[in-house]
Design the sequence.
């Protein structure tokens, strides 16, 4: 008998004042009506670093391999994970234009999580009234503001 893999919903967001500047990240995990919120930040960071950190923290928080419906308003994270990552690795962490990939350490932290889970990526427009996207934005902004 095969055990059915759990399906979890994950919303992520990052925020930054200045770029670089004070930043915050947040994610919300939902499973069978239960919700878990995670958030953090840094004094000197970038928006893309916070967006990536939110995804890493959300996926890392899962105690077992899951099917994950992952929602982000970051095209950088979505396209990086689904279109660019494989090529970056093949080229020794260089972009197609031969320039170094930014945030390599974070992408390298994300890679095992991408392999561990079955992720379906969803892009959502930020600040467009999606309740869970608005929630993670608010949590990320609160974290950012605490580092100013």
Sequence:
């Amino acid at each position: 008998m095969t055990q059915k893999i759990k399906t979890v919903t994950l919303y992520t967001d990052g925020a930054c004042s200045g770029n670089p500047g004070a930043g915050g990240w947040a994610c919300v995990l939902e499973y069978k009506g239960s919700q878990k919120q995670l958030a953090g930040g840094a004094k000197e960071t970038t928006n893309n670093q916070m967006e990536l950190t939110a995804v890493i923290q959300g996926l890392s928080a899962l105690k077992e391999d899951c099917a994950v419906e992952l929602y982000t308003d970051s095209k950088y994270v979505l396209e990086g994970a689904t279109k660019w990552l494989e090529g970056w690795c093949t080229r020794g962490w260089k972009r197609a234009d031969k320039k170094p990939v930014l945030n390599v350490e974070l992408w390298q932290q994300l890679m095992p999580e991408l392999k561990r889970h079955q992720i379906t990526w969803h892009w959502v427009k930020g600040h467009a009234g999606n309740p869970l996207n608005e929630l993670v934005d608010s949590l990320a902004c609160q974290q950012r503001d605490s580092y100013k």
